[in-house]
Specification:
444 residues, Cytochrome Bc1 Complex, Chain A, domain 1, alpha+beta, 39% helix, single chain, 15 helices
Length: 444
């Protein structure tokens, strides 16, 4: 399942409370797919509604593939791939794409590294040429590596080391997934990046940035014949590489009950609570009910968490719950930030009470209908942009093992029942095996 990014959406439904799914008819997303002889999997989706095209290259490498003594390599390459290649000078990829009226970006996760371009239709060959160049002709040299070492270290300082509550996710993963490749975050260790040699970076590049370890998606307004010919010309010269080493994520040992830690944080303005549990893998059938559960609990001002902790009790300025999917094991976490003058004990008590309530009595018909409406609206919105569709196609092929899963996803959400929600709540929260981090402001 591809995790939907939920946002607050106001929906007008009939007085009968009918879900949008009662009348909505979805046109399946049409696509074609094939493999080059070197193993590159290609997915093509034509959409001629606007003169725009998106490309996504999804490399099947993330932080979980790293040596525990060399963490942060996948994220480092997210940056290094914008350096020079055999035919591209340093600091010119952004200029070429922006100059052509396009946009570009990339992201790294535990399971993948993804690069994308969105360009006017007549520039599709530019996007494919850049991606082909950096797939196998990237310069992993001193000037590029040293430049990006500084960039990555600065990013870590800004987002983690010098940010309020900045280390909570790393602390949580280290304990929740101890002994597995999910125990470190994609940002990795600055010390590991500092001490790594050029040869180590080259070895990582040669192992994972290969055509048979990638998915290429082209979505939007393009000529299929031209794009197929271009892909073959630009990527077809590369040879299939040996299959990269894949980490083994075995069964996790149970936690020794609840694990708590208090952190004095000079950067925090208000006390905060981070309560995390293990969750099912992202392709587990129960993940659909888990998603809907998080929507019921904390999506919008009418959600249970907001109504109880922020509006009614006024013990928190923020109370939320999020599902963090991964290929082999996920996590679900609650965040509570205390209101001025309030303590975290009441915040934790309020969150626990809401979790206990949903386990004991489930959810209402109205709550489930609303959650499905929000999900459906997000789903429809996510099928309007060429980049969003390209990313969804790559995720379906990668994680569901079949691209056709993209057209089955919404139906699986709509099949979720109240009984499913309650059962999954018990599966997730019916144990004291959790990590609880409390951050307390202190004067620096």
């Amino acid at each position: 399942m591809n995790q939907l990014n939920f946002r607050i959406v106001t929906l007008f439904v009939t007085v009968l409370g009918l879900s949008l799914s009662a009348t909505a008819q979805y046109k399946p997303l049409a696509y074609k797919e094939y493999d080059l002889p070197n193993g590159l999997h290609v997915i093509l989706h034509e959409d001629h509604s606007a003169p725009v095209v998106a490309t996504v290259v999804h490399y099947m490498v993330g932080s979980r593939d790293e040596d525990p003594a060399r963490t942060g390599f996948a994220h480092f390459f997210e940056h290094l791939m914008f350096e020079s290649t055999d035919a591209i000078e340093r600091a010119t990829i952004d200029k070429m794409v922006n100059g052509a009226g396009g946009q570009l970006n990339a992201f790294t996760g535990n399971d993948q590294t993804v690069y994308h371009f969105v360009l006017p239709s007549n520039q599709v060959r530019l996007a494919l040429w850049i991606e082909a160049q950096r797939m196998r002709k990237l310069h992993v040299n001193t000037i590029g590596v040293e430049t990006q070492r500084g960039v990555v270290k600065e990013e870590r300082k800004n987002r983690y080391d010098n940010a309020p509550y900045g280390g909570w996710m790393e602390k949580t993963q280290a304990t929740l997934f101890a002994g597995t490749p999910y125990q470190w975050s994609p940002i990795g260790s600055a010390q590991h990046i500092d001490s790594a040699s050029i040869a180590e970076f080259k070895a990582f590049y040669d192992a994972y940035y290969q055509p048979n370890n990638a998915i290429l998606v082209v979505s939007g307004d393009f000529d299929e014949t031209l794009v197929r010919e271009t892909i073959l010309a630009y990527f077809g010269e590369y040879q299939r590489s040996p299959e990269p080493r894949r980490p083994v994520v075995g069964d996790l040992a149970p936690l020794s009950g609840e694990i708590r830690e208090t952190i004095n944080d000079p950067k925090a303005q208000l006390p905060a609570l981070f309560m995390s549990y293990r969750a099912m893998p992202q392709t587990d059938p129960d993940s659909y009910a888990a998603d809907l559960l998080t929507t019921i609990l904390s999506n919008g001002e009418s959600s249970r968490f907001y109504h109880s902790l922020v509006d009614s009790q006024q013990v928190a300025v923020q109370a939320s719950i999020s599902l963090f999917p991964r290929e082999f094991v996920g996590m679900i976490y609650c965040v509570g930030i205390a209101a001025p003058g309030k303590g975290l004990a009441d915040v934790e008590k309020g969150i626990d009470a809401e979790l206990a309530l949903v386990m004991s009595t489930g959810v209402t018909d109205e709550e489930l209908v609303k959650a499905k409406n929000i999900t459906e609206a997000s789903f429809v919105e996510g099928r309007t942009g060429v980049y969003q569709k390209a990313l969804a196609l790559s995720n379906a092929y990668r994680f569901d093992k079949t691209t056709s899963a993209i057209n089955d996803e919404m139906a699986k959400y709509m099949k979720v029942t109240k009984a499913d929600i309650q059962r999954v709540a018990k599966r997730l929260f019916g144990t004291n095996q959790r990590i609880v981090l409390t951050y307390l402001p202190v004067k620096g």
